[in-house]
Amino acid sequence: MNNKTPPSEMIRVPTVLIPVVRQLAKIHRDGHTTALLQGLQELIAQFDSSVKLEVTNELQQVEEKLGELETHLCQQDQLVATKLEVLGKQLEKIEKAIASGKYSGGNSRPRRSGYPYQYQQQAVEIKEFAPENLAQRLGVTQQSLITERESKSEQEFISWSRNRDPSSLGWKFQDGLYYPVKQ
């Protein structure tokens, strides 16, 4: 067996490390290679273990933060669940009240006034409408309103508009505006 060291290889090192590599080469030429390798291995082991410790500490801090976040989120989930329960109970009460007739909907008979006399509602008189307003009232576009008016006779248009109007009013076109037709 040959105990000779292998021939040197050329390697590139950062400029900052050139003096250190020269010093290592001198120690090697002086015959201290084994001691040098042991010293380097110990140094590298210390460096690696300190890096592992730093990483471990950082990981522990991250784990702690994640634990805190998890706790916070669990608390928020419980809070939301509690609020949802309360809302659900309130909805149940409202549904029961509606079902029992305590609250009347918009399509049931009107509630009686607490006053001894009834107010007489005055009918609101609808006057003229601009084309865009009547189109909106009838639920059509302004263009389709014009098309219907031009394609139908006056009586047909009044009938058509009466069928679409929420108050069953017929409409007549005059001077650029639409006027309600009395029945």
Give an account of the 3D structure.
The chain has 183 residues and is mostly helical. It has 5 helices and 2 strands, in the order H-H-H-H-H-E-E. It has a two-stranded antiparallel ribbon. A hairpin with a 2-residue loop joins strand 1 (170-174) and strand 2 (177-181). Helix 3 crosses helix 4 (142-151). It is elongated. 5% of the residues are buried.
In short:
Helix content is 60%, strand content 5%.
List the topology elements.
Blueprint: H1 18-29, H2 33-100, H3 131-138, H4 142-151, H5 154-164, E1 170-174, E2 177-181
Antiparallel strand pairs: 1-2
Helix pairs in contact: 3-4
Radius of gyration: 46 Å
Strands, count = 2
* Beta-strand proportion: 5-15%
Reported for the largest beta sheet, the result is: 2 strands, antiparallel
Give the proportion of residues in helices. 55-70%
Structural class: mainly alpha
What is the average of the pLDDT values? 81
DSSP helix count?
5
SSE string, helices as H and strands as E: HHHHHEE
Euclidean distance between termini CA atoms = 125 Å
Give the low-confidence spans.
none
Strand line-up across the major sheet: 1-2
Using the alpha-carbon principal axes, give the shape: elongated
Give keywords.
183 residues, 5 helices, mainly alpha, two-stranded antiparallel ribbon
